[in-house]
Amino acid sequence: MKKFIQTLKNIWSIEELRSKILFTLLLVAVYRLGAHITLPGINPIALEQLSKSQSQNGILDLINTFAGGAFNMASIFALGIMPYITASIFVQLMTVLVPTFQKMQKEGESGRKKINQLTRYITVLVTVVQAFAYVAYLRQTSGPAIVPGFGAAYFTLTTVVVLTAGTLFVMWLGEKITDKGLGNGTSLIIMMGILARLPQAFAQELSFRSERTGDILIFIIEIAVYIAINMGCILLIQAVRKVPVNYAKQIVGNRQFGGARQFLPLKVNSAGVMPIIFAQAILFIPTLFTLGKNGGDLGRMFTDHTSGWYMLIYSVVVIGFTFLYTALIFNPKQISDNLKQNNGFIPGVKPGQPTTDYIGSIMDRITFPGAVMLAFIGILPGLIQLLFGMTQAFSMFFGGTSLLIMVGVVLDTLQQIETQLMMRQYDGLMKGGRIQGRQTSSAVQI
């Protein structure tokens, strides 16, 4: 504990790091404040009464999670950062599939600026479309909460404009945090939105357990299980397969370069959280076409995360999307070419196509256990709810998108803080002085 307190003092003593932390906290506070400002023409009291009698599942609940509850509150930040994420995913896929985008990506800083600008334009289009859909959603589910004095056309126009401006402002906050703050701004905004729901879910679960004698012990066990799940999630996010790489010796003047034995880190979970997001979106589609009594039963099967059929289908979809997304974002041919250009080679493997095949085969072998673990984390909320009988709101933090995003963002932020400390010859945040997974000089930069 004494060493931890000293580390915090070291962090606060670095002026640059202290400024970044304060700047990040300030912008996050602005975002959370805006998430509680209701749209013009909406009666917040009537909306709150309606929301208590309604429940959401599927993609709508996912959007509300990412928006920190602003979606249900009809806030000016109701769409949150989701349109920007959608545009970023689209552009990322285009850089893999379209040669023009690939060429743009290889242009360096100028190409990156073009891609970022294109992403912003696409964000505006996506936001406008989602804003119109959100207006229709408000009319269908929260019609009584709309102030009668607002005309239909006027309410639609003002809501679309405010929502678009709100999303662009949140996007700007994320970019400013990335440039001048600490960590990735977009990821931090999503994480703060998720964490904003944790205190209420924690209080509901504690109140639920306090009503019955002996359930406090179960609540303590739940907290212990939650800590263990977080540790397992950290292992999944940071797990890598180290492929040895040698570099040929080069003599330039009187100096010798290369000849060192390094490694190529291949992540077990290269796809990150994207397969879970895609799977939740796919399983939401059948609920749009379910009609009648039988259709309603089918719809509940695809939205009830405690259903056995839901878990089975969800796991298969997550595993399939993990392989698909990894194939899209991971290019063994490009890595092989980069190694060849830098006079690097894998011991016992010929350069060129054999190296490409070797790296591809390793990725195929390590992706399967990573996909299975990812699917298991995805269905954990349902399993935990069935096992302990806890509230649904609290069970959502035991796995799925929420847990992966929170753990991933916290690790990334801690790695950046530790890098700042190590640059100034301070001890790191961990006992060993280094968080596993931080980029070091011994890792090949691809």
Give an overview of the whole structure:
By secondary structure, this protein is mainly alpha-helical. It folds into two domains: 1-196, Preprotein translocase SecY subunit, CATH 1.10.3370.10; 198-446, Orthogonal Bundle (Preprotein translocase SecY subunit), CATH 1.10.3370.10. Helix content is 67%, strand content 5%. The chain is built from 18 helices and five strands. The protein has helices at residues 2-13, 15-34, 44-52, 58-66, 82-97, 99-105, 109-141, 152-180, 185-195, 198-210, 215-238, 274-284, 292-301, 308-329, 332-341, 353-388, 392-395, 400-423; strands spanning 240-247, 250-252, 255-257, 261-267, 344-345. The strands form two sheets. It has a three-stranded antiparallel β-sheet with strand order 4-1-5. Strand 2 (250-252) and strand 3 (255-257) form a beta hairpin. The longest helix is centred in the last third of the chain and has 36 residues, at 353-388. The radius of gyration is 24 Å and the shape is globular. The protein starts with a helix and ends in a 23-residue tail after the last helix. The model is unreliable at 291-295 and 437-446 (pLDDT under 50).
